[in-house]
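Batch 3, record 17
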Amino acid sequence: MSDRMDPMDPELNDVLGDPELIRIARLLSRTTMPEAPLDDAFKTGLRRQLMTEAWKSAEGGNAWWRKLFAPQGMAWAGAAAVVLIAASVVFYTATSPAGGLTQTVEIGSPQQDSPSVPIHQAILVSFNQPMDHASTENAVQVQPATTVAFRWGGDTQLYVQPTSGDLAPNTQYQITIGPGAKTLAGTKLDTPKTVTFVTQPVPTPTPPPSPSPKNNMLLTNQAQLTTAYPPSGTTYPPVWSADSKTVYFVGGGGALEAVPAAGGTAKTLVPDGVSLPAMAPAGDRLAFVRNGGIEILTLASGSTSDVAVTPAPTTLQWVKGKLEWGSSDGIFTVGDGGPVRIAADPTPDGTAISIAPDGAHAIFQVADSLSIVEVASGKSTNLCGGGCATTFEGWSPDGTRVVYGGVIATLTGRTISSLPGTSISWSATNEILLGSDTGLYEVRPDGSGLTRLADGTYDMPVWAPDSATLVFVRSGLWVATAPAPAPLPPATDQALTVVSDFMDARLKGNADHAQQYLDDAAKAIYNSGTPALIPTGDPSFKRFYVLTSEVDPSAANTVRVVVRMVFASGKDEKNTVEETLTLKREEATDPFLIDAVTASAPRDLGKGPEVIGVKITATEVDVTFDSDLVPTSVGGVTLQDSNGMTVNVTPGYSDRVVTLSGLQLTPGAHYRLVVLPTVLDVGSRHTASEYDLDLIGPAPDATSGGAAPSPSPSPSPSPSPSPAPSAGPSPSPT
Amino acid sequence: MSDPSRDEERRLVDRAKRDPREFGALYDRHFQQIYRFVYSRVREQTAAEDVTSEVFIKALKAMPRYQDTGRPFAAWLYQIAVNAIADRYRSLRPAQPLEDFHDLSVAGPAIEEQAAHRDEIRRIWSIVEELPAQQRTALVLKFQEDMKIEDIAVAMGKTPGAVKLLIHRGVSRLRDQAGALRPLE
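Prediction for the assembled complex:
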């Protein structure tokens, strides 16, 4: 009988006790508020206000103008001002009748030393006294060379913004006010003053936040199907009909029962003695063990056929419409003349406990160890030993992965990923349910996309074939509908997540953590010391960002990522090293591991225009620079094919981006981007040496490159405190 | 099993404690629930905006002193919100009609059954609104915000036992005042 009562919070049972109080509490739980009316402008404005406060707080600790206007600072400043004025008047009247009071020009900026300035941010330079606009603007120098526009807030606040609109991402900027700048009183700067900061990566769309359930609302249609499951004693997982509409389970006394997933009365199909139920893939037959033999129930007719077997089966599995079973003697199937053994037990005292869905392998339990046997060859491999026998959880739908002891492993026992739970069900669409007494989670096999579906008791979840419906145990057998899983990210995004975590670990000096993202081949490379897994020395490893990433169409499940490591002495970034990381995975459901790495020679910064991002498609290569370029010099950006021949294309240029378009790149073919020293920035500077970047022709529909997420140490896409000025067009080539 | 959501929250909190500019992520994560809770108590949009602003500004300023006691960060925000509401609206009562406010959730009964329950729902929540402030707050945090009792205790600055008592007394009072409510099932 279906019982659609709401699940009750166990805490309330404890608090309320009385059934009437619980009933009222349930009534309260079943009401929910409509969304409160919300003005989005308020939400955005409050965030901006908070971030402004945060910036002030973060920058204010050592900024002179913050201290000056702080209450305590104000008091001291007031006292100091009195003394200063008195002293100055005496000094002025005594010694300098023709002159005037002078004060050292100081500058400050909320962006000073920030590691993550938004690229849309205008840079605010504040002065401690009114400045002459023309001389100050003429004294501004921007590194990397950038054409900028100015806007003034009164005479003490100068906003600097690139005329192209945005700052370059992942770039350290230095905005210097040179000695030519004068105050309105005519005082010149005694020394150049510089504001230094690093910009954020290119903004990427924010993924929707992970849903967090209220009153189990992520799971819908929750209903209790029966209280006859699980029975006392041995429990066999329920099995689904092929159309996901009926659940079959073994209840008390070994009765085989069927209950509609939509709710209704359970129907007894076999009165007693049933174990190990297994549904044929077509959904027409249900096999089970009874009285030591196998019975196959044809569901349409209700007729049963027997298969006499010895010894008694310990596991059943349908393989391509044919029944196979395992026992202490090996793996069997039905031949023309009766049972045929297709694989022997690898040890005299082992017992088969599971056969893979594709029938290619089987698991044997030997004492407290698990062995995996290749059915065709009989070859066995010890999967794990010492207490792991009771933790075998199942197979991936294609039979290429096993789950035991909270890990997903290859058929050779190599761990692929860890799961935060052991009560699992792996769907046909590769979503894994993790059940427990306290909640239900969903996760992808590579460990990504972990989502809490509900709080409460959700034991022994079992997906239906539709990968949307599930049953679970909670004081009986329950059914529910899971939400559609989030779309799988592109392979490059999955690889970039690995690279980001790997580089973060290196940046923090955590070698053990970094090693987790390497396969044996890559470990050997880093263990050689070239390149160093944890760079040391001066300049020191300060930050990183992804230059480009692309799927390698010439190799399955392979992504290539070029990551740039920036090294600094103090806060001055000195040089960069590029590592080209090749990430691989055996199966599309596995997480990527770094398999190979090559490192470039160090390249000095501050010499001329540098490439900071490359985006490649089959027909176009976009090369983003950190500087504004002299348009007539971008012919120095070329593409070479695998024979070293220059691809015939005329580059276009706009807003720091050189575009090589009209290409027909061959998928999987090797190309080389070449940037010659003839490329000039708007300050007429060029790099000392050629820059080369190897690329691979992408698949026709693939897009990759620097626009992908490219983490920096602390890229927080928080809005900036300063309002972006509508800069008047007063270009100032620097 | 560790709670990945809590682990992520701890990371965000740690970052915000070190650098207030990281507070934005916590704001994004908790704005909606705090605003909803505040609105449910003050029932007026401008007032809800004022109180919500106060909550987050206080939270930002107090971040360096925030101590992770093992409870969700939201419990701390609720605590600030409860105090802010108490300070500003101690003597006020909700003005908006209750029927505009409480709807049956999607997890509730079918439409026709909802209609049958609507009067009962209104009655119960109208009684909730007349409960002593602390009982009312405890019931709202438990039944509307779906919080655990230990988290409510943090939010209200009480012991879990005191919160249980508030909930028990509040629901008991509902039972006493609502009279014979029609059985739900």
